[in-house]
Amino acid sequence: MYEIIKHPNINWLGLKRPFIFVSVALLLAGLISVAIQGFNLGIDFAGGTLVTVKFKGTRPSEDKIHEALGKQGIDAGKVIIQPISDPTTGADTQVLIRLPLREPVQSQTGSSPSVGQVKAAPAQKTTQTPGATPTSPQQGGSQQAGGALTGAQTTQPAASPTTQPPPPTPAPETATAEGGQLGEEKRAILAALETFNDPADAANKADLNTVGRDRLQNRLVETDPLELVKASGQATATSEYARYADLILDYRDQSGGLINQISGLKNVPNLPPRLVEALPSHFYAGNAVMIGAEIVGPQIGEELRQRAIYVTLASFVGILLYMAFRFEWIYGVAAVVAVCHDLLVTLGIFSILQEEITLNVVAALLTLAGYSVNDTIVIFDRIRENLRFRRRDDLTALVNDSINQTLSRTILVSGLTFLAVLSLLIFGGPVLHGLALALTIGIVVGSYSTLAIASPIMVWWQQRQELRARARRRSEAGRAARDIKRKVAAS
């Protein structure tokens, strides 16, 4: 095997005191950071809002989306934007927006509101539209009514300083708590998406991609492009325009929640061409639409945290059993202690840097556990091989030689892995940032603990057992000598 360092002769166990100091310093720094500022838990654990947005044509850059959200009072620094492909066409036209959970506020009665209830916008009144059509099966189970999901509200001046949530209805738009966090975030995101439309259209017309059924019907009745009110009366006109509104929304749903051109409505059966020709005077097809929105509550986040802890503990038990079966149980204990050291140091650095902890980070930590153990097994395997031929040698010298013999392999494997995860950290983007950072830190700390933690623990225990065995032999020899003296004296 190619050797990076020719014939290394490093006294690794002689450096155990500096290594202990470094490890204790890192662990204490992480512990202090956790005590002072805690962890920056992501949506997966702390709860939050997940919103899927679809754009017409080429989607804007993530920076432009962040800028638009920031103008609506959303902390863009805590928002994660993940580009995704359209599941039906494969086009890169969608993004998944992750927003953190807001802190609940006290209600007027002094009690804390329910999960997701937040302070409403002070100068707006939300109008609900309970008649949206359901989504098509192809659009996914959690996505609601295509663009109609985002058209559930229009804002207008109101005297009331707060918005009261409406009573629940079976309609998709009101199935979620519009007066709570989800409705608050949707209003802000809707306002942000409007900035990607033509200002002239947005000022005087309604967006056909975000308007809800009732709003669409009312607008058709108000403008009366077919002059049905004059010809047949208000009731008949309202009924007819309601049917036309359903046809338009059905077409929108079948188009993946977004109408590219209003002229495409000419192909809709039973929709009068005269109505289609009149629509551009009062409506426009916006460039973006919200096609899915859901909230992850704190209770779900707590359950995910508990599962992550259980999975990690289960991995420790598995490592201990495997190492005890393959070597001795002390080897398993040493490996588990080293893995705990790696995970705690990595989590401590995440707390210090206030990096977000998500399920991706948990996956990275579990990967690190297996990676670190694999490196440790290589050294323990070499120690076991050397023990077959050098049983009378000093254990400290034997372990030092074993580490030096596998040093080139450790540097090659860890170095190449480090370069791979470092490139992922640099070029992987914000979605993979947490996973790549955890792997980058863990590779370095794991390689260090393999050399500086696992082997010294094993040597310390073996030497401790040897001292106990010597003391036991001396005690037994002393008792035997006393027994002989008593027998001689008795005879």
Structure description:
With 491 residues, this protein is an alpha/beta fold. It has two domains: 13-42 and 297-479, Multidrug efflux transporter AcrB transmembrane fold, CATH 1.20.1640.10; 48-296, no CATH class. The protein contains 15 helices and ten strands. The chain has helices spanning 16-37, 43-46, 62-70, 181-194, 199-204, 213-223, 228-232, 234-254, 273-278, 298-326, 329-353, 359-389, 395-405, 407-427, 433-490; strands spanning 40-41, 48-55, 80-84, 94-100, 125-126, 155-156, 206-207, 283-284, 288-296, 356-357. It has a four-stranded antiparallel β-sheet. It has a two-stranded parallel ribbon with strand order 1-10. Helix 6 packs across helix 8 (234-254), helix 10 runs parallel beside helix 12 (359-389) and helix 14 runs antiparallel to helix 15 (433-490). The longest helix is centred in the C-terminal third of the chain and has 58 residues, at 433-490. The chain is elongated and about 135 Å long.
